[in-house]
Amino acid sequence: MHIDARTLDTGSTIQGDICIIGAGAAGISMALEWINTPHQVILLEGGGFEYDDQVQELYAGKSSGQHYYPLKSARLHYFGGTTGHWAGFCSPFDEIDFIRRDWVDHSGWPITKNDLDPFYARAQKYPELGPYEYSLAWWQKQHPEFIPLPLDEKVVWNKMWQFSPPTSFGTKYKDAIVKAKNIHLYTYANVTDIKTNDTVSSVTEVTVKNHAGKTHRVNAKYFVLACCSIQNAR
Questions:
Q1: Taking the C-alpha atoms of 97, 101, 104 and 106 in order, what is their torsion angle to the nearest 10 degrees?
Q2: Right CATH number for 1-86+168-234 from 3.40.30.10, 3.40.50.2300, 2.60.40.10, 3.50.50.60?
Q3: Which end of the chain, N or C, is less packed with Cβ atoms under 10 Å?
Q4: Rounded Cα–Cα distance for residues 162 and 132 (Å)
Q5: Which of 191, 168, 169, 173 lies closest to 42, judged by CA?
Q6: d(Cα 208, Cα 6) in Å, to the nearest integer?
Q7: Are 31 and 214 in contact (CB under 8 A)?
Q8: Which of 55, 53, 40, 38 has its CA nearest to residue 4?
Q9: What is the largest CA-CA distance in the chain?
Q10: Which residues have C-beta within 8 Å of that of residue 46, sequence separation ≥ 6?
Q11: Is the pTM of this model over 0.85?
């Protein structure tokens, strides 16, 4: 089901079991996992189905540190997210990415790569990748001609990547999401506020707004922030 949040009466309350904030690669993948279940899933997307420069302007910002592409150019703010212009270059995080390192501020995760591996394997099919295998040794068995450069293994290690076709999630999965009876996709629903319980142990409600001047509340048992690493932090 698809609802344009601009058409709702302002002050409307949207209710469901699970609320996924962001309809890019992560948000759409999670929603697809819940299709045809008894649970009502709310999928919030800040844009529509096509590029809108007014909505895209919400991604404008500055970055510090190493040079990077302008934020407004690097991300896309509509259904399907940045898969609308990505090259499909994919690989899981490395084990070291999860480890606390004294020389890296704010490093260290409460989980390990092993915790994510089963979910990585399940997610492979949505961007239409191959097997969940990223070690050089495994790929060399399939392709003996893969010979690494003669570099010091203590300094440089070999890492494999896979390419999605690339898959545009907005194109490939639009019909499945819109036609799913238990998936309620709300476009033009930008989350602007997150409310929690007194102990800040769970989210109780989020507020969504759009350029039509409409404000709505979303209530759910569970909330998932799936706005990409940059937008989640912002």
A1: 80
A2: 3.50.50.60
A3: C
A4: 10
A5: 191
A6: 11
A7: no
A8: 55
A9: 65
A10: 22, 55, 58, 77, 188, 189, 190, 191, 210
A11: yes
